[in-house]
Write a structure and sequence with these properties.
Number of strands: 5
Strand order of the largest sheet: 1-2-3-5-4
Shape: elongated
Order of helices and strands: HHHHHHHHHEHEEHHEE
Number of helices: 12
Strand content: 5-15%
Helix content: 55-70%
Largest sheet: 5 strands, mixed
Amino acid sequence: MPETKRPPGTAVPALRASAAAALPRLQLKKISWAWLAFVTTCFALLAVGAPLNVNLYKMALPFGLGMAIFHTATLALTVVRPLPGALLSLIPLGVLPLVTDSMVRAPMPFSVVAMLTEVLVICVAALRSRWSLPAVTWLLSIGVGVAVNYRGMPEVVPQAGATNVVVYASVSGGLLVAAVVTRQWQNIRKQLMAEKTLSAEEQSMRRLAEERARIARELHDVVAHGMSIVVVQATTAQYRHPDLSAPLKNEFDEIAANSRRAMTEMRSMLGALRSDRGARELAPQPGVSDIPQLMAAARTAGITVEGPTAESFDASGLSEVISLTAYRITQEALSNVIRHSPGSRTTVSLLLTGPNLQVEVSNGPSGIGAVLAQLDRANSGQGIVGMRERANIVGGSLVCVPVGGGGFSVTATLPLTPTEAGSGR
């Protein structure tokens, strides 16, 4: 069955789109479980609080059931509207002791269920808003408890009531601090994740821009070499051929002038791309004949490389741009093998098939290649992008596919002379 080739540049975006689609589903699942737990807690507080108010605290049924419903409703309101929910939750704390039978021997002024409900209100407010709102709610609730204790005889405060307020203040204060710290930690974590994502995107864009600038510099050097030859030939034509007519001499002069003008414009455009390190890149550009040196360097890094020798491949029919492109693609492919599959067996092949040059670098499995791929996952992808950019610029194509057993294959098909097939991207 013939292999279906994926369009260049679609693999990484497809993976990113799949991950982006899966993330909202995962977040929705977490939110659904959180809401289920919250609703269950509200029903549990209501189911326990109403009977306790009526039976243990001897409240009338309308007050016992109504205050239980009202207090639980303020907890639910705090989730969506922290300010009104937190402030309204103070009302049951002040009303419940007033409608309770004074002869009961139950914890007062805060019943156990009311205490738990108010603690949850404060914690939810701390997680949903600034720390000032839950802190004020905590202080006001303690003030309500103290005021209720002093409502009858200010000079005599029941010991049980004072202990009840102290226990509530201690438990709710500790949980308030924990909730505020948790919210701050979540905010810091979100900021760090946002900065990390932004830094990774900027690093990826910077690498891509650097690779494109490098390609532009190399193409400039190759084209400038050819233009220099045109200038020299056009300028010296009248001296090498003294019998040229005046119109032909003028035509050669125009060719030389246009070539010089084009070279000047290229140098001015390249000035924005060259960095301070550009001086070391002014050496003659490598080509297909230098690929054996690449393989020799790869062997010193611990991989077994088989491929053509300098004498076995005739590169005389290749243009300088294609030769440079083939060299750079082979260089990046071997670098990926060294990085991701150290110790693997690698084959480099150069084939002339009709009007195209086919460059293939394939490697077998590596024992620790999968582990290294996971460790280097954050830095992967830019090499393939750069190779595909180079192939598209000259009108070629690049196919990168895994092979059986854990290997990988990079195949570039380049025209013998560069075309404009990739210039319109």
